Structure formats: structure tokens, C-alpha cells
Amino acid sequence: MLTEDNRQSLIQAAIQAKEYAYSPYSKFRVGAAFLCTDDTIVNGANVENASWGGTICAERTAVVKAVSEGRKDFIALAVTSDIAVPISPCGICRQVLREFCTLDMPVFLVPVDYPKKDAKDGGILEMTVGGLLPYSFGPEHLELPRQPTGPQ
Amino acid sequence: MLTEDNRQSLIQAAIQAKEYAYSPYSKFRVGAAFLCTDDTIVNGANVENASWGGTICAERTAVVKAVSEGRKDFIALAVTSDIAVPISPCGICRQVLREFCTLDMPVFLVPVDYPKKDAKDGGILEMTVGGLLPYSFGPEHLELPRQPTGPQ
Amino acid sequence: MLTEDNRQSLIQAAIQAKEYAYSPYSKFRVGAAFLCTDDTIVNGANVENASWGGTICAERTAVVKAVSEGRKDFIALAVTSDIAVPISPCGICRQVLREFCTLDMPVFLVPVDYPKKDAKDGGILEMTVGGLLPYSFGPEHLELPRQPTGPQ
Amino acid sequence: MLTEDNRQSLIQAAIQAKEYAYSPYSKFRVGAAFLCTDDTIVNGANVENASWGGTICAERTAVVKAVSEGRKDFIALAVTSDIAVPISPCGICRQVLREFCTLDMPVFLVPVDYPKKDAKDGGILEMTVGGLLPYSFGPEHLELPRQPTGPQ
Ligand SMILES: [Zn+2]
Ligand SMILES: [Zn+2]
Ligand SMILES: [Zn+2]
Ligand SMILES: [Zn+2]
Description:
The first copy, chain A, has 152 residues and is of the alpha+beta class. Chain A has one domain (4-143): 3-Layer(aba) Sandwich (Cytidine Deaminase, domain 2), CATH 3.40.140. Chain A has helices at 4-17, 58-67, 91-100, 129-132; strands at 30-36, 41-45, 74-81, 106-110, 125-128. A 5-stranded mixed sheet of chain A has the order 2-1-3-4-5, sandwiched between helices. In chain A, strand 3, helix 3 (91-100) and strand 4 (106-110) form a beta-alpha-beta unit. Chains in contact: A-B, A-C, A-D, B-C, B-D, C-D. Chains B and D meet through strand 2, helix 2 and helix 3 of B and strand 2, helix 2 and helix 3 of D. The structure holds zinc ion (4 copies). One zinc ion is lined by residues 57, 59, 89-90, 92-93 of chain D. Chains A, B, C, D: Belongs to the cytidine and deoxycytidylate deaminase family. Chains A, B, C, D: It holds the Pfam family dCMP_cyt_deam_1. Chains A, B, C, D: Its EC number is 3.5.4.5. Chains A, B, C, D: Zn(2+) binds at residues 57, 90, 93. Chains A, B, C, D: Keywords: Hydrolase, Metal-binding, Zinc.
């Protein structure tokens, strides 16, 4: 359950995850953490690749780590980086979130200097999965009937 | 320029692009087309891969085709599929659009039965790049100063 | 250390990992497991995505899970699926392996009916990371001097 | 047909393609070109993305460009960069080549200073698709019967 205590633990788990980022190319470290329904927290960091396209972000690392351990019951996500503004998930990660999360699931974007003095909620920007990927493409669209018509 | 004529040509180019979709795994054909500032239209189809992760969508096919021919001055995008509802770009494609398009660039999502009788604008759903990827991560974030602090 | 006991544990960990595959689109379950220098085993399963391109294979799931927990000292990999022939990593995964593994690291490809009766090593095909990705592109190539000459 | 003339045109097309590389992050330009059975040449450059994972290499750009124009009858590939050694396709691209090319299709890896004085074939390293991705996973594996057994 997303209590204030769990929310703080979630944020700290995202911050700690960053320590294991493998980002020799971008030098851009990101940490992410999911809260699950049973209060478990699963975190992840970005893992870059010399081929660029093989890079996996922190959010997706956390997702596949959780799913491959039998957890898909996410109820909140926190994401943080080394930047003093809230950094938001890339589109690839948003699509992967879309596969497993409800559209109203909260996503906390945490600046590096959290808690920022005199900032609302310490500088956290709160979004939702649906807010990050409006009018999204999802699993249900693959089930719709096809009408393979060509150019008229 | 996005005249009514160019808009119609763009939609037809997206529909035609679908003919060359390579989608043996999903059987889901998608076509996309960009209008450039000089009225050129560049289109693309989805190209799937046995490894799943190697799949490239229609929108990204059209982007890399255009960019690799020296065009990055996109002013509108049309996307269509074999489905009777407007299908919207996946998150990966939204992120690639974000790299080259202005946030207010129009994106026309075209149903297979376009023009739908009695539907507003023939059933087209009009979005923008920024509307598809709100509070997006982009090139400018990679330029921000880093404060590589660890857990306190 | 790759003792016979550790090798058996590694194979069983790959087989168990398969149980948590999320593969509603391909219905193709894959499990993978890494042995680390301290005898720890980290496993992973494939996690598919409605966008196809967002899919992450079992091998990469295991890599990012390990790396994001501070482990990069892999000494062996086992991969298995629901197929009665040894299934081998896709090119994306081979590139990600290339980032963290030595070229002579053994990769055990395990058929679903392991141990196969009367088959050498129970039907396992043993490869190496370098054997899977010969003359590979790697981190060191990004360090080479550039001579940005154009067409003559 | 892979005549000496076509081979030279192919190499020059790869070199020219590099001019349109979009590589602000890696500063690593790559060009690729395919020869098709009707002697057409289709080329492409790498197109990077702020999200790293959204990056598409030169080889894949050329593939999707060709496929989305109805061409899949590739008979040779040339790849070049700004580096004085032959740079070879990443694993992602090798997997995408695997989808459309025969295993014995030649791949010419061209150094930036081609033709190198006193070097065999001007410094070109010639590989094959099958040689780049030995014991590969391909479309036919998705057709094999599954035996979804679990841990014993
Ligand atoms: Zn991401
Ligand atoms: Zn897409
Ligand atoms: Zn793979
Ligand atoms: Zn590549």
C-alpha cells in the first residue's frame, strides 16, 4: 500500500539503485524502483551498451527484474538521476510500463537534490502512467479485428 | 506546407506504405508518412524480426529513411493500420519523433475505413508529438549539469 | 568456479527462470542464468511487449538484473526454452553479453528434454561468447581515433 | 549481380551514406549499403536518439528503407565508418540481417582510409552473414513444436 513510509522507502530505493548504473557512454546515471502490492520494492539502474541500441534504462531493468521473479502487481514507481530537475522516463520505458501498470499508477520523478528546500513535495513531480503515455497503444489493440484493405 | 491537398497526399502515402509491411509474426500491418517543409513525403512500414526486440515500427522506418536522405524538417505525420480505430504510435516511436519534431507537430491517426461515413474528419484522430509524449525526456536533458551524489 | 555441481545448478536455474516468462505474443518461453565468480547464480526470463520492439529477452533480463545488483563478474551462461533443440541467444543479447563477458566465457544451450537420452552431454550445445559474435563490435571501438573524411 | 563494378558502387554508396549520419551523442558516423538482385543499391546511416535505446544503426536503416520499398532480395552489404579499421555490425543488426539475407551473403567491412595502400583488397575485411552470427536464432525456430515442461 502506498503509505507515506512506503513512499519514502521507494524514493530511497530509487536513489540507491543509481549506485549500480552502468553508464560509461552517457555518464548519465538513473535509478528506478517499483512498489508492489505486498510492500516489496524492486529497483533497477540503467545498463548501457557499446551498440547504443542495446541500452536498457533503469525503469525497464526494474520491470524485467520484478516480472522475472513473478511480480507484476506494481502500485507506484520512483525515478531519479544526477540532475536537479525531475527526469522523466523515455518513451520505450513508458511503453513497457503500459504493459504492466494501471493507467492511474503514480510515477514519482525525483530530483537529485531531493528534498529541495521550499519546494512542494521536496521537488518531486508526480505523474501517472496514463499521463505519460496518453492515447496509448497497448495489448488490447493487438486483439482488434483486422481489415487488410489496400490502397483504393 | 500543410495544405488540404498535402494532407490528403500524406494520408494516402501512409495507406500505401502499409503494402510493404513485413509483419509475419504479429500480422499487424502499419504504414506511416511524413510531410517535409518542401512538400516531399517520406513513408515507411513496420519491419518485424524473429527476435521480437529487433522489430522496427512504421514510424521509425519513415524517420530513419528521411534522416538518412538528409531530411529532418518534418511538419506532419500520418499513421494507419488495418484496424477500424485510430492506432497510435508506440512509446519507442514517440521518443524517436521527439528527437526530430516540434512538440506541436500534428500527428494524424487514420482508421482503416477512412473516410468513415458521418465521422468528424473521416474518423481521423489528430494529436501532436508533445501531446503523445508529455513532459518528455529529450536531447536537452543530456546537457544538464550532473550532481553525482549517492545515498545519504 | 565452474564445477560440475555449479554447472548443474546453473542449468536448473535457467529451467526454473522460464516459469516466469511473460510471453503472451510469441508463446515462446525462454530462461537464462549466469554463474558469477562467487558462485552466485542470477537468472531471468523473457518479458515481451505489445510494441514488439520493447521486448527484452531472458539473457538480457538476467544481465541487467545482475548488473543492477553490482555483479558483472560472469563466468558461465545457460539458456533454455520449450524447444527440443538448443536455442541460441539472439544478436541483441549476444551484443549485450559482449559488453560484460570474456570472449571465451562458456554458453550452455539446453534443450527442453535435457538430459536427452544417449546424447552427448545430455543434448547441451556448448558455445562461447566470442564464438557467438565473431569479429565483434565492442566498447574499445568507440575509443579509436576518427578520421571524418567524406566522399572523395 | 556482384560484379566488380557493382562492388565498387556499393562501397561508394556506403561511404556517401555516412554523410547523413545523425550521431550527436557518439560522434560515431556509420554508413551502410545493400546491393539488390536488380543491381539497385539502397543505403543508410545511423540515427541516434537521446534515449540511447532508440538508436537505429546504419545497417538497419538501410534494411528497413529497402524492405519498406518492396526490396528484400539483398545480395551484398558494405559497411563503413570514420575509423581506420573495418568496423563490424553490432549484434542487433546481425539479427536483422539474419531475417532477410542468406547465410552466405558477403558483407564488406570498409576502413575509412579505403583503399589502404599495400593492403589486401584495399583493407576491406570480407565476412558473411552466417559468419557474423553463427548458430543463429531465426524465423524457423519460432515454428518448432513446444514442450512446455516445468522444473522437475
Ligand atoms: Zn527509458
Ligand atoms: Zn512504434
Ligand atoms: Zn535476445
Ligand atoms: Zn547495429
